[in-house]
Specification:
single chain, mainly alpha
């Protein structure tokens, strides 16, 4: 499965489990307007870390935190 499909599937699963209503998932969607809250993002990042084997936010000293879904992917 591609990285994009993996991320989108994980977002949809977390939203479903946390009873959140997602906005349409487009590359320019602001993450803070996606319908997920901070707990959802924490769950999402932890699950993605398990899938890819490392935490992308701690893999480098100069990490840029994503603002949009496209940047996150």
């Amino acid at each position: 499965m591609s990285a994009r499909l993996t991320v989108l599937a994980a977002i949809e699963q977390v939203a479903k489990e946390q009873n959140k209503t997602l906005r349409t998932l487009t590359d320019d969607l602001q993450l803070m307007e996606s319908g997920l809250d901070s707990l959802c993002f924490a769950i999402l990042v932890a699950r993605l870390e398990d899938k890819i084997g490392f935490d992308p936010f701690s893999a480098s000293d100069d990490v840029m935190f994503p603002v949009t879904l496209g940047e996150f992917i």
